[in-house]
Amino acid sequence: MWTDDTGEHTTVIDGRQLVGSAARSGIVIQDGTVSRLHAEFEARRDGLWVRDLGSRNGTYVEGLQVSGARVPDHGKVRLGAVELVVDYEAEPRKAVPVWREARFGRLVGTSLAMRELFAALARISPLDAPVLIQGETGTGKELVAQAIHDASTRAGKPFVVVDCAALPENLLDAELFGHAQGAFSGATTARAGAVELADGGTVFLDEIGELPISMQPKLLRVLESKTVRRLGETTQRQADVRFISSTHRDLLTMVSAGEFREDLYFRLAALPISVPALRDRREDIELLVNHFLEQSKSPGSADPELLRELLGRPWRGNVRELRNFVERARALGADQALAMSEPTRQRPPVDAVAASEPTSGTTPSKLVTADEKVFDQKYRDFRDAWLDLGEREYVQRLLARHERNVSAAARAAEIHRTYIYRLIRKHEI
Ligand SMILES: Nc1ncnc2c1ncn2[C@@H]1O[C@H](COP(=O)(O)OP(=O)(O)OP(=O)(O)O)[C@@H](O)[C@H]1O
């Protein structure tokens, strides 16, 4: 409950709700001290949480300024000069639908959080509105996007991925919208962009938070007009696509700070989805390990002792880090793989390579109950794993030497900047 310039109000908070003076906020508070996008409320299992979005006059819970905090029952939240009183009992919590199976498309997960997500995906897939998928790196956002496409009426039509972080601005523009012949140096032939190529299907905009601000109006126009204009052309072409975007960044805070356009945000986030971090759904670890083993056609399942060890790890790189772990464990043995995925990541893998050189080369893999030996595998798998190990070490050292300045590192290594970004993501560095 709160009072603003227009009187007294009450509302029920269900899921996430934006609060601010902007008309598009879920909870609109008309008061000069409240920012356009001031804060976000989230009703979680353990109570109501509030998160400040970089507001001008701050968010306070029980008198203390917070960036994010749980609001107790009957607690007071102050946004600028407006006070809201929270009452947990106002409305009984609605039951959240849960998916019955431990998989959706190519996603697997048995935790309540994932099965709630699967139920939400089943609900939103057939709708044609844009989806925004938020979640930490490696949580499975791209797989979620693919699953939505596959469960939509657009399944069977193209699913085109554009990584907004991988390309410099002019190339990204051409990649998305296409270009005419001679539109820029190097454009020797005319080319259709992702939006045209996906006709009838879905465009997945990965890392949308990296979309340069100068390109944002153009994307907004495509969303609004459902037409696209190639770089260097004047004709508009029909664009029958659904947009799904993803980001590991806090897009709302970026909007609040003027780094991302508010109108584009609301267009893209018509259906917002969050993928939980792996550490918040550790029940999925065993299923995922077995899933990755199955994918790699290894017999057996995860060793219980190893699983206990895995359950205690932080998994900052989320499911991707776990998948990489399983791959390394198959090829290098569980001990070596565990050493490489130490939370601090300080241990240099090259030393580790030296330490376990072939002389000690019988490290048994604990990952597979069939007691697979590191050297008892196909040459190719063995070689790929060790090359991977060396590559990771190379990039780590390269970046450290250049204080993580990717452009300088790219020059020194004589490879393209975008390739370095790819390697950083591949190895979770
Ligand atoms: N629930 C899941 N079930 C099966 N595999 C998964 C699941 N989640 C993620 N993966 C696998 O983990 C890896 C990383 O997933 P994905 O690339 O979708 O993550 P992401 O969130 O898009 O990462 P980034 O933020 O770096 O773009 C992929 O190999 C994907 O197949």
From TrEMBL:
Give the record's keywords alphabetically.
ATP-binding, DNA-binding, Nucleotide-binding
Q: Where is the FHA domain?
A: 12-66
Which Gene3D superfamilies does the record match to this protein? 1.10.8.60, 2.60.200.20, Homeodomain-like (1.10.10.60), P-loop containing nucleotide triphosphate hydrolases (3.40.50.300)
The record ties this protein, via SMART domains, to: AAA (SM00382), FHA (SM00240)
Q: Which InterPro entries does this one have?
A: AAA+_ATPase, AAA_lid_NorR, FHA_dom, Homeodomain-like_sf, P-loop_NTPase, Sigma_54_int, Sigma_54_int_dom_ATP-bd_1, Sigma_54_int_dom_ATP-bd_2
Q: Which PROSITE patterns match?
A: FHA_DOMAIN, SIGMA54_INTERACT_1, SIGMA54_INTERACT_2, SIGMA54_INTERACT_4
GO terms for molecular function, please? ATP binding; DNA binding
Q: Where is region (Disordered) located?
A: 341-365
Q: Which Pfam families match?
A: AAA_lid_14 (PF25601), FHA (PF00498), Sigma54_activat (PF00158)
Highest taxon listed in the record's lineage: Bacteria
Q: Which GO terms describe its biological process?
A: regulation of DNA-templated transcription
Chain ranges of the Sigma-54 factor interaction domain: 107-331
Q: Please report the name of this protein according to its UniProt entry.
A: Response regulator of zinc sigma-54-dependent two-component system
Species whose genome carries this gene? Labilithrix luteola
